[in-house]
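FAQ
Q: What does a multi-component entry look like?
A: The components come first, one per line:
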Amino acid sequence: MFPDADYSGRLDRARALMDERDADVMLLSVGADLPYFAGYEAMPLERLTMLVVPKDAGAVLVVPRLEAPRIALRGGAFEVWPWDELDDPVGVVARHAGKADLALIGEQTWSRFLLELQRTMHRTRFESASAVTRQLRMRKDAAEIELLRAAAAATDRVVAALDGVAFGGRTERDLAAEVQRLVMAEGHDIASFAIIASGPNAASPHHEPTDRMIEEGDTVVVDFGGRWHGYCSDTTRTFVVGEPSPEIAAAHSVLEAAQAAGRAAVRPGATGEDVDAAARKVIDAAGYGDHFIHRTGHGIGLEVHEHPYIVAGNSEPLEAGMTFSIEPGIYLPGRFGMRIEDIVACSTDGIDELNRSPRTLHEVS
Amino acid sequence: MFPDADYSGRLDRARALMDERDADVMLLSVGADLPYFAGYEAMPLERLTMLVVPKDAGAVLVVPRLEAPRIALRGGAFEVWPWDELDDPVGVVARHAGKADLALIGEQTWSRFLLELQRTMHRTRFESASAVTRQLRMRKDAAEIELLRAAAAATDRVVAALDGVAFGGRTERDLAAEVQRLVMAEGHDIASFAIIASGPNAASPHHEPTDRMIEEGDTVVVDFGGRWHGYCSDTTRTFVVGEPSPEIAAAHSVLEAAQAAGRAAVRPGATGEDVDAAARKVIDAAGYGDHFIHRTGHGIGLEVHEHPYIVAGNSEPLEAGMTFSIEPGIYLPGRFGMRIEDIVACSTDGIDELNRSPRTLHEVS
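Then the predicted structure of the entire assembly, as C-alpha cells:
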C-alpha cells in the first residue's frame, strides 16, 4: 500500500533530532509512524510490532513471525526481527534498545506495552516520540503532496457524482454506503468514513449516519474520506434538498466567506492560530460565533488528523510543505448545520489548493 | 451500533474487582472497553475520550464537546463531561480521578495520554486495567453469545455464497472486494477484513490481497469477518480451484482432523493450552508440525482478538460463556497453505458451535 520513499534518509533525520534531545532510542508501533519510517503498517492487535531506532545503531523492526512475510525490506533501511508465539516481545525490544537514559515512544503505542517497557527498562525515562516524529511528518516532500493531491482529486470527483444523485427519500445510512462505494470506485484503498448528517442531525459535527429519511429543505453535511496509497483524503460539502430557505442560504454565504478567509490567510510564516482567527472572525461578525464549535482544521498525511492543528494557541509558523484542512462550520442545535472542508498545502508563496470542487451550497433533488 | 445492556451492573462488577486489587480508579479509552462499559466507542483520534471509574463514586465519560451529541446515556450508568477545544482533557480526567494511589488504565489507551497522566498524577502508580476488564469481558452473557451467533451465521451464509463463485482467473484483490460486499449484504455494520491468500501466498497466514491471478490447482485461504451490532465475526475456509492434488487433499484431511480435535477438547475446566495441544498433536503426528506456525485461537467478542488465548502457556480454565476461535493451519512456504477457523463458545457441558459451514476443502471453478 505504501509507495517507496527514502526510508533511510527519514531515519537519519530522526536520529539527528534524537541527538538534539539527548534521546538514546526511539520505539514506534501502531499508527502512522511505522508507515512513515518503514513503509509498513502494524496490525493494531495484541501481538507487538515495534520499530527500534537506536541513536547510534541500525534500526530493527520487531514483528510477530506470522506478519514477517508481509514486510518489504525498503532497501535495508532496517533489519527485520521476527518473534515466535511463545517469545516475550517486550524483552526482545528491550535488548535491541540497549542501555538508554531516555527513550521516545510513539504516541499511539498501546499503554499496555508502555507499562511493560517501563517495568523491563526500569532505569529508562520515557517521553513521547511526537517531538521527533511531528517535526518530520508535518513537512511533506513533493511526492507526498502529489499523493495527497491525487487523493483529494478523487474525492472531488465523488462530489461531482453526488451532484447528480437524488438525496430526498433516502436514509443517511443508505447515502453513506453510496458515498463509500463511490470513494472505492475512484481508486482509494479504503473508504475510511462517511458522515451523512441531515436536517437537525447536521448540527452534530461528528454525527454517525442513521435511518433518518432525508427530507425536502434539509441541509445535508457530507464529510468523507479514505486512503490513497496510504495518504488520506478528507473533504466536506453541504448539500440542500430543493431550494434552500433564505436563512440557510444566508448562513452558507457567511460560511463560504469564512472558509475563503481561512484559505487567504495561508502563507509561510502565518500560524495555525492566524488561519483559525481569519475564518472565525467572519463567522463572529455575522453573529454565528457561538455556533462554530470546533477548531478550523487539522494536519493530514498518513493520518487523517495530525500536526499542524489550525487552532487558537498554535503559534508555530506554517512552512511550505505543510498540509492541512480548512473546515469552518455553523451548527444550530435542533435545526440545521453546515461545513465546508478543503485540504490545502502551504506553498512557498501562499496556498496550493488540493480540493477544488465548488464550495457553494450544492442543490440536489 | 451497540445494543442496550446492563452497563450499571458491569460497572458495579468492575468496582468489586478494583476493590480486590486496591485500585482507586480505572481509566478507559479507545478499544472495546468503552463499548463494554458505556455502550460507546471513542474515535481513535487525538482528542481524548476517557471513562473515569472511581472505586467509590459515579463514572464520568470525559469527551470532546463535538462528540457529545453522539452519546446515548444508557440509563444513567455514567455522567457525560464534555471538554472544549481549548481545555486540557488530561487535567479534567485527573480532577475526576481524585487522589489515587493506584490507577488502572485501559490497555489500548495511547501512550501519549498515559505519559501525560503519569506527569499530572505524579503520586499515582499505573497498572494495566486488563486485570479487571478481561475478567468481565471474557465471560459473555446469553445476549452477547446470541449476537456472536448471529454474526457467525451471517459469515456462514457468505461461505455458502462463495461455493457458487468462480475463483479462477480473478485477482485476490477482486475476490476480497466481493467477500466484503457479501459480508455487508448479510447485514454486518462493518466488513473489517478479508484475507484472500492464493497459491504460494496462502503460506503467509496474514497475507494482504494482491493483484495475483488465482489459478487452477491453487488453494485459496479465505479468512474474513466484520462487526454485527458491535460484536465480531471471524471465520476461515480453504477453497481449491478444480481438483485438489493428492498432497493438498491429504494435508486438508489432517487439518480437518486437527480442527475437530480442538473442538472436541472444549469443555469447562479444560485450558486454552489443552485445546491448542489437542489440535497440534494431530498435525505433529502427521509430520506437519513445523508448518503450523501460530497459536490455535483467540477469544472474540467486542474485539476480534481478546482473552482467552488458545495457546501453549495459557493454563486458565475455560468456563461456560467464553467464546473463541479454533483455527489450526498448515503452511508450506513457496507452495500452498490452508486454515479452518470456527468461532465457538464453551458451554456448560462442552461446546456450542457458532460457525457451522462445511469444514471440508471447498472445490470451486
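Q: Is there any commentary attached?
A: Sometimes. For this entry: Residues 7-137 of chain B form a domain with the Creatine Amidinohydrolase; Chain A, domain 1 fold (CATH 3.40.350.10).
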